[in-house]
């Protein structure tokens, strides 16, 4: 399953939600999960997880021979929580339109290797973003409850629909909902004539300490934000992982190994932490 997070504007929390969404999916399901930084220019995904990757998306595009798609694994970095990361390159302006084919191939390979592929798509619809959105089973539009963001939200919904993402594939996430207090979620829904699918409160202290420690929010002390992130991941994971079901993961230790079959599928992955 491919899930993209797209910001309605810079700084809405797209990376925070993509990284924590991916880490929670891995924690809850124990299935192979990767987060890909597809933002144009240097991204933050690896930084949020305290990683210094040797390889990036740009290495995959520039160096990988697509005759051997399995080799994509050697460009992946692994976090202690078991989440795999495909980091962004350092070049400004890339991935560029000429990289579309490489991105498409990379997504196909990773989708075959991983149960969950989570994409931080940044906040602009460039050529490579459009390919990611078209390949996605679900697109999460991340907004904050401020006027510029909400105005962009309406425009972005139209743009995303034009890219072919319609109906249940498109979800709207209101991040930092409690902070601005200008408009309630109900007011926003009424004014824009749409439904907000997920709401997350504002908790800068928790988010900042997770980034400072290079861990997901779920690795810190339980917080309301953690509960909200957990709930989103469980709906992505599917009904078997809803709270209270036998498979909800709450009985399992965080250190349990992944399922044998999935571990086999990923054998040969050599994390390259620099
Ligand atoms: N729910 C939240 N509560 C409080 N602070 C948050 C929350 N979500 C994100 N932030 C903070 O907002 C800032 C921007 O977050 P983040 O980098 O995830 O956004 P982004 O949309 O990926 O930004 P960019 O456009 O730079 O890629 C960070 O300082 C982050 O800690
Ligand atoms: Mg970001």
Task: Draw up the topology in text.
Elements: E1 2-7, H1 14-29, E2 33-37, H2 45-48, H3 57-63, E3 77-78, E4 84-86, H4 100-113, E5 116-120, H5 127-135, E6 138-143, H6 147-162, E7 170-174, H7 177-180, H8 185-192, E8 198-199, H9 204-213, H10 224-237, H11 260-265
Parallel strand pairs: 1-5, 1-6, 2-4, 2-5, 6-7, 7-8
Antiparallel strand pairs: 3-4
Bound molecules: adenosine-5'-triphosphate and magnesium ion.
Structure report:
The protein has 274 residues and is α/β, with parallel strands linked by helices. It has one domain: P-loop containing nucleotide triphosphate hydrolases (Rossmann fold, 3-Layer(aba) Sandwich). The protein has 11 helices and 8 strands. Strands 3-4-2-5-1-6-7-8 form an 8-stranded mixed beta sheet, with helices on both faces. Helix 6 links the parallel strand 6 and strand 7. The C terminus is likely disordered. Adenosine-5'-triphosphate binds next to helix 1 and helix 9. The site of magnesium ion has 4 residues, from helix 1.
């Amino acid at each position: 399953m491919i899930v993209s997070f797209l910001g309605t504007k810079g700084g809405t929390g797209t990376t925070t939600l993509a990284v924590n969404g991916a880490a929670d999916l891995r924690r809850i399901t124990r299935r192979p999960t990767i987060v890909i930084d597809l933002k144009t220019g240097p991204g933050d995904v690896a930084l949020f997880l305290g990683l210094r990757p040797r390889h990036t998306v740009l290495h995959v595009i520039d160096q990988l021979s697509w005759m051997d798609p399995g080799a994509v694994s050697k460009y992946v970095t692994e976090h202690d929580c078991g989440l795999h990361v495909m980091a962004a390159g350092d070049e400004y302006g890339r991935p560029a339109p000429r990289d579309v084919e490489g991105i498409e191939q990379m997504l196909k390979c990773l989708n075959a290797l991983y149960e969950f592929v989570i994409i931080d798509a940044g906040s602009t619809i460039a050529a490579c973003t459009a390919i990611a959105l078209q390949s996605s089973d679900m697109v999460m539009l991340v907004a904050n409850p401020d006027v510029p963001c909400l105005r962009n939200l309406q425009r972005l919904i139209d743009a995303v629909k034009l890219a072919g993402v319609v109906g249940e594939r498109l979800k709207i996430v209101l991040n930092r909902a409690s902070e601005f207090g200008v408009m309630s979620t109900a007011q926003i829904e009424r004014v824009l004539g749409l439904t907000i699918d997920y709401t997350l409160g504002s908790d800068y202290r928790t988010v900042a300490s997770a980034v400072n420690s290079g861990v997901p929010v779920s690795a810190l002390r339980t917080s309301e934000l953690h509960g909200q992130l957990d709930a989103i991941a469980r709906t992505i994971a599917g009904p078997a992982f809803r709270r209270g079901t036998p498979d909800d993961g709450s009985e399992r230790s965080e250190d349990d190994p992944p399922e044998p079959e999935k571990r086999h599928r990923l054998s040969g992955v050599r994390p390259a932490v620099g």
